């Protein structure tokens, strides 16, 4: 729940929360290393060689890379599913226009589905929910496309092409909904944050005899970790968060299919 609440915040709060956490842990580690109450104990740890820092930092870097790869892959999959859905619906419309038979009802069903997705379903994606209105519009579209009479009017080849494109749109919607239901991988995020704190601790151990260098090393690493993890956090969820994917492609397709209003009479 805490990770989800953090990822729901604006960009500046995501970065600010991360910076506050690493600043607090960095100051605590520095105080434990250089404070009067613990200085005698920390002095007994002097002698940890500098390469030790690399063993912890590599683990942090590897897991951060895996986390970033997962986030970027989800965003690519979401973009592909939206574009595939748009292309399939546009193809249904183009095939209906190329047919000799009057297929105005089919084109109206395509427009109704697009409008339901853009206006009703898209705001629900941030919570991983589907729209009953969009589901109903899709069923109506499939009913129009699967009408056996179309085979007589269009021919088997054209009717099969229409069915394939409609089913492609249905499959793309299913992929989009599946991606919206994927919540953040909490254990992976907690592991990355713990490794970030352990890397701060490793930096403190290799600079026990030089307080100023210790503070500078912890501060520089903490700033770098905020930049890296903050960038991953704002891209963690494709349909939610500050940089959520917008239905631009579907909205443009709807505008293309909406008949222009007749000019007003003077």
UniProtKB/TrEMBL annotation:
Transmembrane spans: 12-33, 45-68, 189-208, 215-234
Ranges in a coiled coil: none
Protein's UniProt keywords contain Transmembrane: yes
Keyword Zinc: no
InterPro entries for this protein: DUF4239
UniProt keyword terms in alphabetical order: Membrane, Transmembrane, Transmembrane helix
Protein name stated in the entry: DUF4239 domain-containing protein
Organism: Enterovirga aerilata
